[in-house]
Amino acid sequence: MSKSDMSTETNSANQHLSERLSSTFMLVLIFGVFFAFTMLNNALFSGARIDLTENKLYTLTLGTRDLIAEIDEPIKFRFFFSQRASEDLTALRAYARRVQELLEEYQALAGGSIDLEIIDPEPFSEEEDLAAQFGLQSVPVNNAGDELYFGLVGTNSVDDQLIISFFQPEKEEFLEYDISRIIHQLSSSRKPKVGLLSSLKIQGDINMSTFQTTPAWVVIDQLTQQYEVVDVAMDATELPRDMQLLIIVHPKSLADATLFAIDQFAMAGGRVLLFVDPLAEMERPPPGAMPTEPASNFSLLSNWGMQLRVDTVLADSAAALNVGGSNGQSVRHLGILGLSAENFNSDDVSLASLESINVTTSGILDMVGRPESRIDILIQSSENAMPMASTKFQSLADPEQLLKTFVPTGERYTIAARISGKAVTAFPEGVEVETVPEAVPEAVPETVPEAQVEGQGQVESTRDIQLHQAVLTGTDKLNVIVVADTDILTDRLWVQVQNFFGQTIASPWANNGDFVLNSVDNLLGGSELISIRSRGRFSRPFTVVESLRLAAQSKYQKSADTLQRELEETDAQLNEVESSQSDQNLFALSPEQEQAITQFQDEKLRIRKQLRDVRHQLDKDIEGLGATLKLINIIVLPLLLVLGIYAMRYTRGMRISG
User: Fold this and answer.
1) What are the residues whose beta carbons fall under 8 Å from the beta carbon of 570, sequence distance 6 or more?
2) Are residues 162 and 275 in the same domain?
3) What angle do CA 169, 172, 174 make, to 5 degrees?
4) Total count of domains within the chain
5) H helix and E strand count, the chain
6) Same domain, yes or no, for 5 and 97?
């Protein structure tokens, strides 16, 4: 070997050694920089966080931040999640991690005002007993009897307690709202005061024919359990102090003084939940009694930008419920509607996760003028609806008569809406209130003769006209929910009440009560809670995979449906031939009959085999799609990455050697 060759080999070896040392040095340098950055971050920026999720799932809204800033006394959160029982529930564990991280974000932002405790209630442990004691819901997960807890308990310094019995993944968009609602309620020193103004006997009554008391409607019982409900007279000129929400049910012919008090309450930021009705079923007079005006009238509603369509009832064939007809047969009643999720505004928290709401002879809400306020539709009809005169429903004997004149307009009509934002007073000049002062007899001394006592206290009544000037002429914090039906509150449309050993048990079968409670809860939340709308979902579905799966399913579904119909027809023909033979002639079939039965049986086996093949092919295609995706994720992508790295090294080596 020549000296030049040895020199070249030596230079090459030195070059390779230099490259290896350089690579090793770079790895050590990168590791050192990463380690130093991690230590520096933990030391200086331990509280700093960056939310890189698309919908900013871990960034609390401004409303939540305001609520946390207003916490006066510490709040304790106990988050229960069963780790061992959820080992095989990957999706639920991911959602539980999302909930825990969001709670930790609350704790970090509160700066000591929120104490968070993470509890794993293992079977037969004190933690499991504690979860059951708080009333959290347990879910069985296997045949061994293991139960899973996934809930939250919030308490304050005076031992008030609120819970989320089980975090439902379907309500993920409202996760922040549910947690913030607990903070808002635990921060309040007492139950919120709710006023109730109603022309209906919603709080119970006395039956004058039997002298028996009728109980309050279930929805009122539920409200009184959570809030301080106070009665407001129909002729009230002043509303109770410290009242945060006014519920108005079926207002009729309210005096200007009462309307003025309600107007000023709304202008001052008070919340209003309004139920109006063109035909209140619960106000129908008994036979022989004097008829009454069944429609609501509330002039302030038009001042807020909406009005109830006069003498009009909503008819909807798509949502109509079946009732008994005049001939005993079941018939759809176009005025009794069972509304489902497709009729709801799913983005509003008052309707979150609700499935069904029933209404009867509901009205229609229309937007009037050009209101400055914002109007959000909460509940609306289907497109198979039309307005009908309320007179058709007042003395309706046969619901089938409504179908004869029903012609859907293709328009969707508003049943419930939220009105928020700006509004002006309906009484810019104030209102005159006529008052009659009562005569109060003075105390009579014992020494006064009886002759002087005669006529004492007979003070002549004087009328005093008082002009109440409007204190507030406008607001930008109007918050009203209006529902065009009062029967939505009645027990018969959503709950079954039973007496169980002296205890009243209410079993709901629709979500009417949930809607009312959600609306009250949301309205009482103030501007902070109201500003917290639905957030994005944590789980990200594989939309491409789902579309491919649906395409594969539709490809074979038509063949499967055809084969299923052929199978049913063959079964029917085979049963017809076999049933035509009596037991005595069962063994005396003609050759033609035997041949027909054999053909039908062979045809049945052939169709069943084809049907199995079609379904197996569908499963095979879906499994093949999954295998292809796994192959891409596990092998192809890493292989492409490795090839890319080698290509970069090869290019670099070519540049060095060149």
Assistant:
1) 600, 603, 604, 607
2) no
3) 140
4) 4
5) 16, 25
6) no
First and final C-alpha spacing in the chain = 24
Q: Strand pairing of 75-81 and 114-119?
A: parallel
561 shares its domain with 522: no
Q: Which of 311, 339, 316 is nearest to 416 (CA)?
A: 339
Both tokens of 6, joined, read 């040895």
Question: What tokens appear for 426 in the block?
Answer: 């309906």
The DSSP element (H or E) to which 262 belongs, if any, is: helix 256-267
Please provide the DSSP assignment of 282-342 as one string.
GGPPPTTSPP---S---THHHHTTEEEPTTEEEEETTTEEEEE-TTSSEEEEEEEEEEEGG
Give yes or no: residues 29 and 102 share one domain.
no
In angstroms, rounded to a whole number, what is the distance separating the alpha carbons of residues 381 and 377? 11
**Whether the predicted pLDDT of 147 surpasses 70:** yes
Tell me, what's the pLDDT at 47? 46
431: part of which helix (H) or strand (E)? Answer: strand 431-435
Are 272 and 245 spatial neighbours (Cβ–Cβ below 8 Å)? Answer: yes
CATH code, domain with 68: 3.40.30.10
532-561 per-position pLDDT tens digit: 644 544 444 555 555 555 555 555 555 666
Dihedral angle of Cα 326, 331, 332, 334, to the nearest 10 degrees: -20
Instruction: Tell me which residue range forms the domain holding 36.
Output: 1-48
Question: Is 342 part of a structural domain of the chain?
Answer: no
Distance of CA 61 to the CA centre of its chain: 19
Residues 6+ apart with CB under 8 A from 633: none
CA distance 605 to 431: 86
Pull the structure tokens for residue 67. 């609520």
CB-CB neighbours of 103 under 10 Å: 19
Residue 580 burial (CB < 10 Å; 0-12/13-18/19+)? exposed
Task: Kindly state the tokens that stand for 227.
Answer: 């809030």
Length of the chain, in residues: 658
Residue 37 lies in a domain: yes
User: Is residue 7 domain-shared with residue 120, that is, in the same domain?
Assistant: no
160 and 241 fall within a common domain: no
Percent of the chain with pLDDT over 90: 36
Give CA–CA dist 449/192, Å, rounded: 54
Q: Which of 63-77, 263-277, 364-378, 467-481 has the lowest mean pLDDT?
A: 467-481
Closest CA to 519 of 160, 211, 273: 273
pLDDT in tens, 187-240: 876 778 999 999 998 988 776 666 677 888 999 988 987 789 999 999 999 999
**648 and 509 in a common domain:** no
> Of 158, 187, 216, which marks where a domain is finished?
187
Cα(156)–Cα(105) distance, rounded to whole angstroms? 19
What's the rounded Cα separation, in Å, for the pair 10 and 16? Answer: 10
| 128 assigned to some structural domain | yes
Residue 454 lies in a domain: no
Do residues 247 and 454 make contact, with C-beta atoms less than 8 angstroms apart? no
Three-state SS across 578-622? Answer: HHCCCCCCCCCCCHHHHHHHHHHHHHHHHHHHHHHHHHHHHHHHH
